[in-house]
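Before going further, learn to read the protein records used in this course. The integers have meaning only within a learned vocabulary of local backbone shapes. The record below shows the convention in full.
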Amino acid sequence: MRGKITQKLVDGLNPQAKPFEVCDTELRGFLLRVQPSGIKSYICQYARGKRLTLGSPEIMTPFQARELAKEAMARYLTTGVDPMHQKKIEKSHTFESFVTEKYMPWVESNHCRPHDTLSMMKAWYPIIRNVKLSDITAWTVEKQRATWLKAGANTVTVNHKINYLKIALNRAVAWEVLQKNPLSSVKLSKVDKIGIVRYLSDEEDFRLRNALDAREEKHREKRESFNQWRKERGHEILPEYSDDGFVDHLKPLTLVALDTGLRRGELFKLKWVHVNFPGRILTVIGSTAKSKTTRHVPMTDEAFDVLKRWSDPEKPQKSDYVFPSADGGTLDSIKTAWNRLMKDAEIKNFRFHDTRHTFASRLVMRGVDLNTVRELLGHANITMTLRYAHLAPAKLATAIATLNIGKSLLDKSK
């Protein structure tokens, strides 16, 4: 039987003793199958002997089914991807299995901070952990967005969670694990892209440095007291902290961050081979940079002195990393030590990442142009750097003053 498959035709077909099909006269290979039970299904025959069930007239219109058939046929002709094979793959992966078996191994090899990605993926586990990839819908995400925002979650944080999920599903499409991203229509919530830049005031900077010094002194006193205890009991004495060195990585890490604007991950992965003392340059290798682009950051006198003292040239380096973990590998977190430091310094709402904002803000307030600041920060474009523009009021005032000049000339001409 042949005819154009329309809603009227679908509604008017009655079941017969045997299954029968209607071949669409508008799109070759698009069929409607009617079972004796009355069940009707749209079918796409994309090659000889190869068929794909598209769905039921109860959940889609003839137009929607025809469009799906066109897409399946075009995909098969242009890429050779078998839609039936694709469907089997999609059915085989839940969100969790895709993340653990495919996505995270790739992220760990290609991203600088895989822990952040894993954290964002796990944020979705309570909602779609055991859901098939092909069953994830835009409505599921929109509903969860509303739930998070209603519970008081920060809009930027919710945007991050949604964006990380969209990126993961884009990767699934690229690997042909998913036919198309169901979240392509989901838009991120609008936020203030400039926002309030948190940076240290002079008073806070003073308290931070005092807290770092006090922490160093406290550790030295503890080591001295502990060694006295060990000596009295005949135990081996631990090495004393040198007066011109540092007790651990926190103080040098913090000061270098304030003087260079390097990101936390860039500092954690910085190696001694990338510290050029003669040229007074730090090199951030592209593989460790967020922008994937190598950049060179000059050292201030303080950063140079701090790294010289931290390098301890009289002793062999225990690690290739400038700020290694206890086992010589890369640092994973300084959250506990940082929070305690902020409490001691009586500084509120200041993250380690805000040392980067402090570095940039000070440059702008001292008259450095935004493009130079962009290069030092490693921003891919000027958009991110523009958040610091308001910190150069003299330049903004000069720009506005040109309007006064124009008005004066107009007045004189009258």
